Structure formats: structure tokens, C-alpha cells
Amino acid sequence: MGKTRMTILDVRATVANLRTQLLGARCANVYDLDAKTYLIKTAKSGEKVLLLLESGIRFHSTNYSRDKAATPSGFCLKLRKHIRTKRVEEVRQLGVDRVVAFTFGAGEDANHLILELFAGGNIILTDHEGTILTLLRTHTDEASGQRCAVREKYSLDNLSENRKITQELLSSTLDAGLRAAHDKTLLKDILVKELDYGPALVEHALIGAGIESKCKLLGFDAAPGSDQMGALLGALREVDGVIDGLMHSEGGAIIPGIIIRKGAAEDSPYDDFAPIELRQFMGRATERFESFDKAMDAYFTVAEDQRLEQQKIQQQKAAVSKVERVKKGHEASIRALKEEEESNMNKAMLIEANLQDVDNAILVVNSLLGQGIDWISLKKMVKTEAKKGNPVAQLIHQLKLETNQITLMLTFGLDCLEEDSQTLPVTLVDVDLGSNAYTNAEHYYTSKKKMAHKAGKTEASADKAIKGAARKAKEELKRVDTKSSIQAIRKVHWFEKFVWFISSENYLVVSGRDAQQNELLVKRYMDKGDIYLHADIHGAATHIIKNHNKEEAVPPLTLAQAGLSCVCRSQAWEARMVTSAYWVHPEQVSKSAPTGEYLTTGSFMIRGKKNFLPPNPLVMGFGLLFRIDETCVANHVGERRVRGRGEQDTE
């Protein structure tokens, strides 16, 4: 994915869109998604808006739910303490910088939440006077020397203001650039550095002026009145008009958004986003959104999905490699034990094949040691005798007198050693000077058996360890696969807080869960043309059939199904008593009780005729409602049509 940060133009457009959503909204809670990303939940007139802030990167509302931290951080708790339950009074960009201030509360109770989108980024909370209460990152500005830390003042006013382009401003900018320019200095770089437009708008203006984006400053005709100068000035004034349009949109107009793909193909990856059509992206495939805020949400959500997918792949690889490491580790241990077993067996057989020679070597060394010869002299004597051709000395490879051992060079054909020494495999064998040849051979046989036993136990434990590692890896892979990441937030319908179902003829039937909901259902949601139902028994739940087709009466089958629900959700269910329900029109339902009587919460007075339905058996079922893809809607047309109306679709 290409673009990773917001430009000045993006900030201005997002502020304009967020003002319409957030002003007057109350902060319900604050959550931290990670160390730099926070989610602010707000509510306004029943509508919930989730504001996402990522330090140094982005801010926008989001329609996607994300995994939240199990335990809120200290910074998150501080935000909750100061801004929760307060209303959003202001959202504004500070000057032309990539800095946005959200004001929660009014007067001395106000707090400013400041998001910095440049350099390392920051999120700063201040009181109404600008004194910093908490922040993500403490630092000192190198240019001004101003320290950004708790209890320091954060200036909300001394920030740069937008300068509209003029002939004088453009000329002075280019003159200053020419004085320090070299052969490789680009016109674009000077304009980006000295003016307040940012790279995207500068490139947009250069293309509009017919100037290549890689035009060298020294190759540009900066003389006042030149064709190039006039074209560039006109293009930058056009950009000023775009910015003015965004500023004036803050009054309530929604600024649309565009996502630009990398190529001309509709399925090519996302590359950039903008609130206007930029000339440098002409010819590429685009995706349009009704608001720039939604475009940014979609763009960054795809980026997050890709990042999470990469993390998921890495976790899967780690889980699999863990099993491989365990397997290879045990295989190496078993291989080493078997090699040791084979080596011990070979050494024992070599000693048995050379019993006399081994005994002679042990006897000679012990005899010389018994005569009191020191170790150094003994080693020299062995070397001298070997050079003279002494067969016993030639067997001795090394004296390990500190461990009471000698190392012998043994083969399975000592009689041929002098004639064909190059072709005989020689093995170095350590023997104990305290034992004879036979005992040394027995020692190696015993070691061989121990190695075999140990290898067997290691193989058995390896199988168990590998199966355990495989089981844990499988559990980890399942956790990775099922772990929720980013999911679109489904819009919750008004009727979902009640008990509800959809009849076989596609009518919504709603019922109160208690007396308070019965009261709310009738007073707020029952409209003209709907049907009110109630079981003919005390304490039954109120039911409403929402008639989406006001010109036609609710069909009998839907009335019967709603009546059955009325009876089953009344005391008749517990009493196992067969009774019936009745229905009336909304105008027959009243909260006015007769003189001297009182209606409790959830109870209503019915005036006029009650239309009783036939008694119903106490039978209820449980169903699942599936949401189908838009491409499949045509396959289900007419499935819930009204009985007796032919093939007419009422969906």
C-alpha cells in the first residue's frame, strides 16, 4: 500500500466531515487499540460514532470494530477520567499544520485533545487553559526549543495561518530558492518546502500549469510576467480555491472521497486517497465514497487487514516451525545416542580382537609408572620407542595419565599394520589402566547397552513431545484462525431491543419484554395502519404488527402467527391453558383510563370492538435468520409473499 499518512488537504477535509458528525455528540468511552491508536466512542441523537485516532498517522470515524486491549493503559484511563460524558464542542485544524484539536466540554470544564500528525506524532490532553495533563510522547522542539511535557503550556493559537498565493509571494519564494539552488534542485521541492500546500497539491498544480514534476529550479523561467510563471501562479490560485471550498464546507456540506488504485484495473491494490481528483492520478482506477471520512476508513482498514494477515501468516509459520524444531531436536538426540551406541560396540569388539596387545600396553605403562618414572619422561619414552619400531609403543596414541587412561590405535588386522597401514581403518580407543583388556571391553559393552536403553527412552519421549507440540500448534493455529480482527459494524435496528420475528408473509412482529417495553412499543413505535395484539389473559406481552404496506390490510396468516406468539408469551404457557388473542387498530388503543380507574405501566385501554382470533395450541419454534449477499437476492424473490396474492413480492 502506497500512502501511509495524511496530508494537510486530507486533514482539512476530514475536519470538515467530522464536524457534522461529532459536534454536540457526547463521549461515551475511550479504548486503546495499541500504544499509538485510540478509539473514542460518541453518541448523538441515538447515533453512535466511533472516532479513531492514530498518533502521527490518521484520524477518522470508523464503521469497523477492532480488538481492544484487555486492560486499558494509563494514558487511556487518563483520557476517560477527563473527557468521558463530556460533549464535543469543537473540532478544528490548527492553522495549516497537521494538527487537530478536539474540545470536550465548555468553559473551565473544557479539555482539549490534540492530535499531531507530523514527525513522530503525539496525542496530548490539556485543560481549558492549554496546560498539558497527559501525553503519549514527551519531547522538545528543536527549532523553537519549546518543551512538550506534563504541566507545560501547549499553544493553541501561535500556529501558522494559511497564506494565499500572490505574485509577490511566489516570486520571493523562487528567488530565495534560486540563491541556494544547485543543479539538482527541483522546483517542486522548493514549493513544497516554502509554501503550505503539501506535495500532492503542488504536483497537482504543476501538472495543471503544464510543468513537469521533475522540472529543475534553474531551468524554470521565474521572471515576473513569463508564461511559465503565469501558468504556475494560475494553477496555485486554483489550489487556493480548492482549499477555500473545503474550509467553507465546514458549515455542514459532506466532502466526498476518492481512493486511487495503483493501476487502471479495478482490482489493483489501493495506493492513495484524496478529497478531490488530483491530476497526477488521472488514468488510474478509482473508488468513490459519499464522504472523505469513509474513504479513509476503507483505505486504512484494508491496510490493517493486510498487516493482520501478515501477522497471522507469521504466527502460523512460528507454530509449524516450533513443531519442526522439537522434531529435529529429538531426532538429533536419538541420532547422537545411536552413534554413541555403535561407537561403544565397535570399541568393545576392537579390544576383544586385540586382547593380548591391549593387555601388553596396559602392563608396560603400569610397570614404568611403578618404577617411579615421571609423566613427562614417560611420554618421551613412548614416542622414542614408537620411532624405533616397538609394536607396543606404536599402539599408544596418547597418555591420559590424569584420568588413569591411555588411548590406543586399534584395528581389526594388526598383523597387517606395517605392510598396508594406509588401508586399515584405525580407531582411537580409551582404556583404563586399572583394568585388564577384558574388563575394558565389558565396560564398553555396558556403555553400549546404556546408550541403547537411553535411545529407546528418548524415542518414546520424542513421540510424546512431538505429539504434544503438534497439539499445541494445532490449538494455536485454531486461535489464529478464529481470532477476531477487523469486522464491519452491523447497524442495529430499533426493533432488536424487543422480542421480534418476521412472519411467513414478510411482516415484522414486535413484542415487549416487560411492562416498560410494552409502554415504549405502543407510544413510540406503533403507527397508523399497524395492528395491536394482546392475549385474552392478564399479564400478556403486547404485540405490534408493523404494516409496511399501508394501503392493504395485514393478511390472516400473519395475524394468526402473531396471535400464536401472543398466547405463547403469556401466562397461558406456564398454566398450559388454551386461550385466544385479539387484535385492534392503533386508534382503538388509549392510555386514558375510565374515571376512578388507573392504568399501570404497560397497560392500555381498548375502545371499540376486539377482533378475536381462533384459539391456538401452545407450540413455539426457534429459527435462524440468514443475511444473504446482494448477488443472491434475485434467487429469493417471492419466498415470503402474501398468501393468496399470486406471485406478488412484498419484500
List the helices and strands and how they pair.
Blueprint (H helix, E strand, L loop, with lengths): L7 H15 L3 E7 L4 E8 L2 E8 L3 E5 L1 E3 L7 H10 L4 E6 L5 E6 L6 E6 L5 E5 L5 E4 L3 E2 L6 E2 L18 H13 L7 H8 L4 H10 L18 H22 L8 E5 L8 E5 L11 E4 L2 H62 L1 H16 L4 H14 L2 H5 E5 L4 E6 L16 E6 L4 H46 L3 E3 L10 E4 L5 E4 L3 H11 L5 E5 L7 E4 L9 H13 L3 H4 L5 E4 L4 E2 L14 E2 L4 E2 L39
Antiparallel strand pairs: 1-2, 2-3, 3-4, 5-19, 6-7, 7-8, 8-9, 9-10, 11-12, 13-14, 13-15, 16-17, 17-18, 20-21, 21-23, 22-23, 22-24, 24-27, 25-26
Helix pairs in contact: 4-5, 5-6, 7-11
Family: Belongs to the NEMF family.
Protein name: NFACT RNA-binding domain-containing protein
Keywords: Coiled coil, Cytoplasm, Nucleus
List keywords for this structure.
alpha+beta; ibrinogen binding protein from staphylococcus aureus fold; 19% strand
How many strand elements? 27
Structural class: alpha+beta
How far apart are the termini?
Answer: 41 Å
Overall morphology: flat
Residue share in β-strands: 15-25%
The multimeric state of the shown protein is single chain
Domain NFACT RNA-binding: 497-608
Subcellular location: Cytoplasm; Nucleus
Pfam family, one: NFACT-R_1
GO molecular function: ribosomal large subunit binding; tRNA binding
